Amino acid sequence: MTSQVSSPAEQTGETAREALRGDGAAGGATDGERHGAPEQRRGSEKEVRRLDRVIIRFAGDSGDGMQLTGDRFTSETASFGNDLSTLPNFPAEIRAPAGTLPGVSSFQLHFADHDILTPGDAPNVLVAMNPAALKANLADVPRGGEIIVNTDEFAKRAMAKVGYETSPLEDGTLEGYRVHPVPLTTLTIEALKEFGLSRKEAERSKNMFALGLLSWMYHRPTEGTEQFLRRKFAGKPDIAEANVAAFRAGWNFGETTEDFAVSYEVAPATSAFPPGTYRNISGNLALSYGLIAAARQADLPLYLGSYPITPASDILHELSRHKNFGVRTFQAEDEIAGIGAALGAAFGGSLAVTTTSGPGVALKSETIGLAVSLELPLLIVDIQRGGPSTGLPTKTEQADLLQAMYGRNGEAPVPVVAPRTPADCFDAALEAARIALTYRTPVFLLSDGYLANGSEPWRIPDVADLPDLGVSFATGPNHTLDDGTEVFWPYKRDPETLARPWAVPGTPGLEHRIGGIEKQDGTGNISYDPANHEFMVRTRQAKVDGIAVPDVEVDDPSGRARTLVLGWGSTYGPITAAVRRLRNAGETIAQAHLRHLNPFPANLGEVLGRYDRVVVPEMNLGQLAMLVRARYLVDARSHTQINGMPFKAERLAAALKEAIDAQ
Questions:
Q1: How far is CA 309 from CA 330, 334, 452, in A?
Q2: Residue 125 burial (C-beta neighbours within 10 Å; 0-12, 13-18, 19+)
Q3: Percentage of the chain with pLDDT > 90?
Q4: Rounded CA gap, 575 and 353, in Å?
Q5: 241-256, pLDDT tens digit by residue?
Q6: Which of 87, 114, 593, 647 is the most buried (most CB within 10 A)?
Q7: Is the CB of residue 642 less than 8 Å from the CB of residue 621?
Q8: 602 phi and psi, to 5 degrees?
Q9: CA 396 – CA 385 distance, rounded (Å)
């Protein structure tokens, strides 16, 4: 459900509009970036206004197809060449109670004619499919925003279910908004009469009617969606054509109704991207592709041992489709079996991966410790979600950092890498694989639900530009005893990386013991010797401490900032948007963002020492701030949020302004 297109930088706005039937937008600045006054022009029949951005939110029951609707709108927007960022938001239940506030599912899309960083703080346009969707989302819509409501669903019983004693469409609740009452259900059923569908079957296509209407309103391409619907329902051609008909009916309704007198345009982001081939991509998809690319660059088979868990399951689903690239996926009976199989694959010479979320990490902790002891490359992909325990399966959080750092018995250091955007998940996967293969160690890759489900344009890299991850397996003896005998020592280390040799089982003469009991240095024999244990513990720590990672880069254009905002992971977008807001208002503030959390970049201490104040925004209770304070003895101040949603740029900018003003 993504589209691959030429670089927006290679298109002109008018040429793209002619080829793809237009672009679209309506909305105001909410992301801390530029937003000019609307440019207006007249088409042959209806007014068309050109803006530089729009934020749209589709909302309805979890069975109304809001995620599919949003995804299709996103794909067409990506194909047109806008920069974009998305925020899917849905219940944990497979089919949450219909018509209730907990059952509301929404999809927010922010697209623009320039580079953007977040899905936006608030929607300029809300499509509400029922009273619950309206009530759950109305507070987020700024005054003056547009609201499209499905009036067919505003029956007395449905309104009472969410606490509306009177109709919000009639009692003044929506005063100050531009409201478009549309009987979506009725119009959809009427449009599909010729298909002979039952009322219930026809109603299911109302999301396609809404998508058609919004596609007209914002000049989105339509061909891709029609092709998608025919592919999706290839086995049921009548259903496919019914959905296409509903989609076209929505478009025609926008074209002919007097209620929608204005449509909107957002030109392609012609200057936002370097030339190249782009596609829309989600974090989990980018991460999956990154793992495949890493295996190909290492010339190793890719093995995934996993147990399904939200929001990591998409990686298992995606990798299972790529057996042609030497990928093997194993859906285990539980989390422990999944990582056990992956570690076995690592012992056998594969690039081994296990995917999970926070509760699964807890179950995998003993085997991660075993991987530390065995010193084998293993990627542990943790798509973080709200906790503790089952917590908030479909909401985002960054609260597994300390678990990744210390969540094992004994001294068991593990490198930690964190992507910062959905597209960056591709590069982060390659980097995690580089560390694991080079240093023979398990590596944590910490993504989260916001990145996993969110999407943005991704420039498809040239294969020639990908890093060489080639490894050398042990092929023969590597040590000579005092009597001249040549033997294989499984724990004889590379003096530069401290990595031990990787011997594939079955190689003649390289038989060696594995297991969780402490090893003797060099020989790998079982050892209870206290001095040897201390040496091995310190050596494993030194190996992780010595991993070569790039210096952290500081964004401080003026060089006069006294406040540094330090982030990690998915806070990159909101932090950068907030920093832009402050700089546009004349403030001086510096920004740095960490990809490597263990080990920290070698220059981090020096960077922190340059500033009077260090602020660390995190979606937890201050875990990175705690690590920074302990390691560098700086007064790092936390700004935290744990509500299952990403930071809003406006609120974060206000918090950073307070830090700047504090003396």
A1: 14, 10, 13
A2: buried
A3: 90
A4: 31
A5: 999 999 999 999 999 9
A6: 647
A7: yes
A8: -60, -30
A9: 5
pLDDT at residue 42 tops 60: no
Q: Which alpha helices (H) appear in 199-282, and where do they start and end?
A: 199-203, 206-217, 223-232, 237-256
Distance CA 409, CA 341 (A): 21
Contact present, 269 and 83 (Cβ < 8 Å)? yes
Beta bridge partners of 264: 49
**Cα→Cα distances 161→64, 132, 133, 200, 332, Å:** 18, 8, 12, 21, 41
- Cross-strand pairs, 60: 105
Q: Tokens for 260?
A: 């929608």
Distance CA 288, CA 425 (A): 9
Beta-sheet strands, E only, within 357-433: 378-384, 416-417
User: Which of 612, 605, 637, 607 is closest to 624 using CA atoms?
Assistant: 637
Structure tokens of 461?
A: 């890299």
- What backbone phi and psi angles, to 5 degrees, belong to 155? -80, 160
Burial 502-533 (b: 16+ CB within 10 A, else e): bbeeeeeebebebeeebbbbbbbbebeeeebb
Which H or E run includes 581?
helix 572-584
The pLDDT tens digits of the residues spanning 125-145 come to: 999 999 999 999 999 999 999
190 burial type by CB count under 10 A (0-12 exposed, 13-18 middle, 19+ buried) = exposed
At 126 the three-state DSSP class reads strand
Largest interatomic CA distance in the chain: 96
pLDDT at 28: 38
What are 440-492's pLDDT values in tens digits? 999 999 999 999 999 999 999 999 999 999 999 999 999 999 999 999 999 99
Phi first, then psi, for residue 445 (nearest 5°) are: -115, 110
Q: What is d(CA 616, CA 637) in angstroms, rounded to the nearest whole number? A: 6
**Three-state SS at 265:** strand
Residue the block writes with tokens 């009725």:
186
For residue 541, give Cα distances in angstroms to 379, 435, 499, 609: 18, 14, 12, 25
The DSSP symbol for 356 reads E
Tokens in use for 381?
């992909």
Please state, in angstroms and rounded to a whole number, the distance separating the CA atoms of residues 34 and 52: 8
Task: Give CA–CA dist 56/26, Å, rounded.
Answer: 9
Q: What is the pLDDT of residues 576-597, one digit of tens each?
A: 999 999 999 999 999 999 999 9
Which CA distances in Å does 55 have to 26, 47, 301? 8, 20, 42
* Percent composition of the chain: helix, strand, coil (DSSP 3-state, to 5): 40, 20, 40
DSSP-derived 3-state class of residue 189 = helix
- pLDDT value of position 11: 32
Token representation of residue 522: 């060099």
pLDDT tens by residue, 399-451: 999 999 999 999 999 999 999 999 999 999 999 999 999 999 999 999 999 99
* Phi and psi based region of residue 611 (left: phi greater than 0; alpha: psi -120 to 50; beta: remaining): beta
> How distant is the alpha carbon of residue 420 from its chain centre?
8
Q: Is 9 helix (H, G, I), strand (E, B) or coil?
A: helix
What confidence tier does 663 reach under pLDDT thresholds 50, 70, 90? low
Q: Tokens 């320039």 appear where?
A: 114
